[in-house]
Amino acid sequence: MKKQLTIILVLFCASFVFSQKAKVLEGDFKNLKGITAYNLEFDYANLEIPKYDSEEEFLKDKMKKREDKNPGSGEEFKKSWFADRENRYEPKFIESFNKRFDEGQIKVGKDLAGAEYTMKIKTTFMYAGYNVGVVRQNSKVDAIISVYKTGNPNNILFSVKYTKAEGNGAFGNDYNSGYRISEAYAKLAKTLAAHIKKKTKK
């Protein structure tokens, strides 16, 4: 039984490691060595959502389905869809990244005073997943993360694309889509922090 549990744990860890893929687009992680603070900028423009041609089409469909069942709920969905970015996703990314550096060796934040560098989180793909009790599916986020000197966005120091950052709540307790997606941003930040730690050592 002990052996079986060990095998399951190893497989689980392996699936987590390989589920998120990183592809360096420009520069090298080593270019980030010595940088201790990043101002964060989040960009959701031209977001790809599976099964829809655009985010606008996605919102139109989801709002109509809700309005047909409960008038007024469609507009509430749209409001929360955008509000979750500032209220859930971004704080979760910041919290998840910063706690990987217990002594504050590296810090990220919005409007971070004194930060010479900006880290742009450009979300390119978002899947909310679902949880209807008996069946569920993790949320997924793809993002391009670019670093440049603040005020000089055309001179990219480093850029990497992460795909399949998955989000889910503990023990499957993630019935709210905003919460599931925020957990994907937490995983994205965790992976990024781990890569920076490992690849800027030398």
Automatic annotation (TrEMBL):
Top-rank taxon, per record: Bacteria
Residues of the signal peptide: 1-22
Keywords tagged on the record: Signal
Protein name as catalogued: DUF4410 domain-containing protein
Organism: Flavivirga aquimarina
Lineage, opening ranks: Bacteria, Pseudomonadati, Bacteroidota, Flavobacteriia, Flavobacteriales
